[in-house]
Amino acid sequence: MLSWMRNVVQSEYMQIFSMIERLHRRFLDVVKNELDRLGITDINNVQSLILFNVAEEELTVGELTIRGFYLGSNVSYNLKKMVENGYLVQERSTHDRRSVRVRCSDKGLSLCKTLQGIFDNHVTALGKGYVVDGDLEATNKTLKRLERFWTDALRFTADLPLEEAS
């Protein structure tokens, strides 16, 4: 690859993962703002997104972490707080006493519906000039390819080409 082209690609690559991190933080800020606007103070933005991902399912802590959204230690703490505040119901598995399953309570399901309404409003607003046809689809396709690349980089590090030392 030509040197100038490689520099452009490298610059864009560096900007992408920086942007992903900023977007994640900004999205959490948006969720926090919505919770504040609604006067909901007994759950934070991260917890509400965990809750939203549980929705109507019944999951173990392991299943939540496998989905790749959360760090294990943070999940346990956040689930504990959501159980204490009545958003989740936690029960030991009848088949494996070591396993704990969680599901949304009625209060949790109500918040999930509220969040879904907020996200539906976001979709409507996006259609008013923030994105054009195909933007989100192309972005998702690119992000999925990056996820696949980073997953492969974890699994097959030895197979990735290394630049020759000068």
Q: Which descriptors apply to this entry?
A:
166 residues, mainly alpha, Arc Repressor Mutant, subunit A, 3-stranded antiparallel beta sheet, 66% helix
Query: What would you call the structural class?
Result: mainly alpha
Please identify, by name, the CATH architecture of the domain at 41-156: Orthogonal Bundle
Give the C-alpha Rg: 20 Å
The largest sheet has its strands arranged as 1-3-2
Strand-residue fraction? 5-15%
What's the order of the H and E elements? Answer: HHEHHEEHH
Distance between the termini: 17 Å
The dominant shape is: globular
Low-confidence segments, ≥5 residues, pLDDT <50?
Answer: none
Helix content: 55-70%
Q: What is the CATH top level name of the domain at 41-156? A: Mainly Alpha
CATH topology of the domain at 41-156: Arc Repressor Mutant, subunit A
Number of helices: 6
Main sheet: strands, sense, barrel: 3 strands, antiparallel
Mean of residue pLDDT?
86
- The number of E-state strands comes to 3
CATH superfamily of the domain at 41-156: Winged helix-like DNA-binding domain superfamily/Winged helix DNA-binding domain
